[in-house]
């Protein structure tokens, strides 16, 4: 997902990374907040024309939404 020489958006990458961390630690509420933040920022950057590879982030967003939807508590 993260290329060594990729020209990805650093701000979006940071949010994607944090969502992954939250999901791996079973922090569903934090992950949901991150997903909402990611969706809003994608929309803002697309509207401003500053996002070159929107499909990459939109696909990641959908995967995160599926992960949260299938989230099960372990306690």
What gross morphology would you assign?
Answer: elongated
Summarize the amount of helix as a percent range.
55-70%
Radius of gyration using CA atoms only:
13 Å
| Beta-strand content bin | under 5%
Mean pLDDT: 87
Order of helices and strands: HHH
Q: Mind summarizing the main beta sheet? A: none
Supply the helix-strand structural class.
Answer: mainly alpha
- Individual helix count: 3
**How many beta strands in the DSSP annotation?**
0
Low-confidence stretches: 1-5
First CA to last CA: what distance?
Answer: 31 Å
Walk me through the structure.
With 75 residues, the protein is mainly α. Helix content is 69%, strand content 0%. The protein has helices spanning 10-24, 28-48, 54-69. Helix 1 packs antiparallel against helix 2, helix 1 (10-24) packs parallel to helix 3 (54-69) and helix 2 packs antiparallel against helix 3. The longest helix is centred in the middle third of the chain and has 21 residues, at 28-48. The radius of gyration is 13 Å and the shape is elongated. Mean pLDDT is 87; it is low at 1-5.
